[in-house]
C-alpha cells in the first residue's frame, strides 16, 4: 500500500459457487485495476450470503472457491488486503451499533430489499435480508473506506452508509470516514445470453444464458453458440434494436480491448454464426489460464488459508497506531505500508539469509528483530519511534511461517501431513488471534493486548532449533534452495 492513496473496499458473495462472466467483466476486473492505484480491501462476504438458507459445508466450499477465483483473476495479496468477512468479528459488532442508529423507515426504503422480498414472500424473507444494507454499511465504515465500487443499483446502499456514519459522527465525534460510491464508467455490463434484456445473474431462472467461469470449456462454448440473436443478419451494435448481437459485441470488445466499431467492420457481410464462434474461442483462450490458476490455489490449501488468514489479521497494525499512539488514520496506513514493505524485503532476501544463517539461525534472528520492534511499538511513548520500530517487526515477521512450512516439507516420511499440520496451526492462530486481541484490547487497550503477541514472538527464538539447521550449499544448490523458499513464501 502506498502513502496518500484513497482506500477502496468491495465484496463479493460466494453463493453461486463459480463467478460468471458478468461478475468478472463488470466488477472483478475493476478490482484488479484499482489495487494498483488505491489502498484496496476486498472480501468474500459470506455473512451476506446467509440472508438466504445455505448448506454450511457448501458455503464453506463456495467461500474458498470465491477467494481462489479472485486470486486467479489477478487480485494480488501483495497489492491489496483479501479476506473472508466472517473471519473479522468486528463486522458484526459494528453492524449492531449501526442497526441501533438506522431508522426503520430508512431500511424499509431500500429498493433491493423490496425486490427480493417480493420474490421470496413474507414467510420466506428473513430479518437479515432487511438489515443487509446496515451490515454493508458496517463493512464499509469499519475500514474507513473513501470509495466503494458498486453498480448503480447499489448506490442507495452507499448513501445509507453515509447517512448512518454521519449520525454516528454527530453523536460521538468525527470517527468514521464517509464514503463515496465509485461507479466505473468503463465497466462492461454483460447480459444473459438467452435473455439480453436481463443482466447476467446468478439468480437467473435458467443458467443456459449464464457463462460460469468454472464451466467446462465445451459447456461455455455451447452457451455462446446458442446465444439468442436478433432479426436480420447484420452484425451491428444497437442495444435497442439488436440487444443479443450487441451483447456478444460487448463481450468480444471486453475480452480483447478492440473497439466495437473495429469488430463491426471485421464482421461486415458475415452472419451471426461466425461472431458466436469467435467469441466462444476468445472466451476459451482467456478462461483456460484463469481456471488453471484457480485450481492451483484450491490444490494448495495451505497457501490459500495463509493468504486469507493474513488478510483478516493485517488491519490490526493501523488500529494499534491510531488507538495506541494517537496517529490519524492516514499515518496509521503509512505505518502499515512500512510494515508491508519490511515483510516484502524480508521475503525477497530470505534465500540469501537462510543460506548464510541456516533455517534455525534465520528464525532466531527473525524472532529477535520482531520482538525488539514489537516491544518498542508497545512500550515506546514517542509515536515516531514506535512507527520506525514497525520496520524491524515486519522484517522479523516475514520468514517464520514460510520456513516452518519448508521445514515440515523436508522433515522425512509423511511430509504432507506435517505441512498440513503447520498450515492448520497457522490458520488457527490467524483465525483466533484477531478476536482474542479484540477482547484483550477492549479490556486493557491495544498496546497492552499486543504483549501476548510479543510473548509468542520471543518464544520463537527458543523454538528455532525445531526447524533444523539446513547447511549452506553452493552454486546451483544455493539457487534451488532460494527458489524453494520463494515458492513456499
TrEMBL record:
Coiled-coil regions listed? none
**Which residues are recorded as binding ATP?**
13-15, 22-23, 151-153, 190, 199-203
Q: Where in the cell is it found?
A: Cytoplasm
Q: Which residues cross the membrane?
A: 334-354, 361-380, 386-408, 415-432, 444-464
Q: Which GO terms describe its molecular function?
A: ATP binding; transmembrane transporter activity; tryptophan-tRNA ligase activity
| Keyword list, A-Z | Aminoacyl-tRNA synthetase, ATP-binding, Cytoplasm, Ligase, Membrane, Nucleotide-binding, Protein biosynthesis, Transmembrane, Transmembrane helix
- What's in the GO CC field? cytosol
Binding locations of L-tryptophan: 139
**Pfam families associated with the record:** MFS_1 (PF07690), tRNA-synt_1b (PF00579)
Q: Does the keyword ATP-binding apply?
A: yes
Principal localization reads cytoplasm
| GO BP terms, alphabetized | tryptophanyl-tRNA aminoacylation
Q: Where is this motif: 'KMSKS' region?
A: 199-203
Reaction equation(s) it catalyzes:
tRNA(Trp) + L-tryptophan + ATP = L-tryptophyl-tRNA(Trp) + AMP + diphosphate + H(+)
Q: Which InterPro entries match?
A: aa-tRNA-synth_I_CS, aa-tRNA-synth_Ic, MFS, MFS_trans_sf, Rossmann-like_a/b/a_fold, Trp-tRNA-ligase, Trp-tRNA-ligase_bac-type, Trp-tRNA_synthetase
Q: What is its EC number?
A: 6.1.1.2
Q: Which NCBIfam families match?
A: trpS (TIGR00233)
Biological role: Catalyzes the attachment of tryptophan to tRNA(Trp).
What subunit structure does UniProt give?
Homodimer.
Protein family according to the UniProt entry: Belongs to the class-I aminoacyl-tRNA synthetase family.
Its protein name is Tryptophan--tRNA ligase
Q: Which gene encodes it?
A: trpS
Amino acid at each position: 500500500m502506498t502513502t496518500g492513496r484513497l482506500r477502496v473496499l468491495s465484496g463479493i458473495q460466494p453463493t453461486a459457487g463459480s463467478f460468471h462472466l458478468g461478475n468478472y467483466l463488470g466488477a472483478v476486473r475493476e478490482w484488479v485495476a484499482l489495487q494498483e492505484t488505491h489502498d484496496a480491501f476486498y472480501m468474500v462476504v459470506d455473512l451476506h450470503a446467509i440472508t438466504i438458507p445455505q448448506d454450511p459445508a457448501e458455503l464453506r466450499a463456495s467461500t474458498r472457491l470465491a477467494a481462489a477465483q479472485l486470486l486467479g483473476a489477478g487480485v494480488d495479496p501483495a497489492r491489496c488486503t483479501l479476506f473472508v468477512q466472517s473471519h473479522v468479528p468486528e463486522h458484526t459488532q459494528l453492524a449492531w451499533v449501526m442497526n441501533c442508529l438506522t431508522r426503520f423507515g430508512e431500511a424499509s426504503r431500500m429498493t433491493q430489499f423490496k425486490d427480493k422480498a417480493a420474490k421470496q414472500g413474507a414467510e420466506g424473507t428473513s430479518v437479515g435480508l432487511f438489515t443487509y444494507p446496515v451490515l454493508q454499511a458496517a463493512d464499509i465504515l469499519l475500514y474507513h473506506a473513501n470509495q466503494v465500487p458498486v453498480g448503480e443499483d447499489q448506490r442507495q446502499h452507499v448513501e445509507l452508509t453515509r447517512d448512518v456514519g454521519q449520525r454516528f459522527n454527530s453523536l460521538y465525534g468525527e470517527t468514521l470516514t464517509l464514503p463515496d460510491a465509485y461507479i466505473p464508467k468503463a465497466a462492461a455490463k454483460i447480459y444473459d445470453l438467452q435473455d439480453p434484456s436481463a443482466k447476467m445473474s446468478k439468480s437467473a431462472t435458467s443458467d443456459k444464458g449464464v457463462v460460469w467461469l468454472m464451466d467446462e470449456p465445451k459447456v461455455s462454448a455451447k452457451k455462446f453458440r446458442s446465444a439468442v440473436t436478433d432479426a436480420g443478419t447484420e452484425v451491428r451494435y444497437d442495444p435497442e434494436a439488436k440487444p443479443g448481437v450487441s451483447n456478444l459485441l460487448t463481450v468480444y470488445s471486453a475480452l480483447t480491448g478492440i473497439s466495437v466499431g473495429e469488430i463491426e467492420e471485421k464482421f461486415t457481410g458475415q452472419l451471426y454464426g461466425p461472431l458466436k464462434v469467435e467469441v466462444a474461442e476468445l472466451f476459451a483462450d482467456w478462461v483456460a489460464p484463469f481456471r488453471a490458476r484457480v485450481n492451483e490455489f484450491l490444490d494448495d490449501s495451505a497457501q490459500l488459508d495463509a493468504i486469507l488468514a493474513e488478510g483478516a489479521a493485517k488491519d490490526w497494525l493501523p488500529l494499534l497506531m491510531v488507538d495506541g499512539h494517537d496517529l490519524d488514520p492516514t499515518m496509521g496506513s503509512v505505518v502499515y505500508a512500512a510494515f508491508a514493505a519490511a515483510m516484502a524485503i524480508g521475503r525477497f532476501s530470505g534465500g540469501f539469509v537462510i543460506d548464510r544463517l541456516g533455517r534455525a539461525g534465520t528464525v532466531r534472528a527473525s524472532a529477535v528483530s520482531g520482538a525488539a520492534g514489537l516491544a518498542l511499538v508497545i512500550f515506546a511513548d514517542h509515536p515516531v519511534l514506535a512507527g520506525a520500530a514497525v520496520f524491524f517487526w515486519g522484517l522479523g515477521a516475514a520468514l517464520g511461517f514460510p520456513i516452518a512450512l519448508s521445514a515440515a516439507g523436508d522433515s522425512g516420511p509423511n511430509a504432507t501431513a506435517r505441512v498440513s499440520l503447520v498450515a492448520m496451526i497457522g490458520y488457527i492462530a490467524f483465525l483466533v488471534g484477531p478476536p482474542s486481541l479484540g477482547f484483550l484490547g477492549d479490556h486493557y487497550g491495544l498496546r497492552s493486548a499486543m504483549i501476548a503477541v510479543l510473548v509468542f514472538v520471543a518464544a520463537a527464538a527458543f523454538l528455532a532449533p525445531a526447524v533444523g539447521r539446513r547447511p549452506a550449499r553452493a552454486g546451483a544448490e544455493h539457487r534451488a534452495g532460494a527458489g524453494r523458499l520463494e515458492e513456499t513464501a
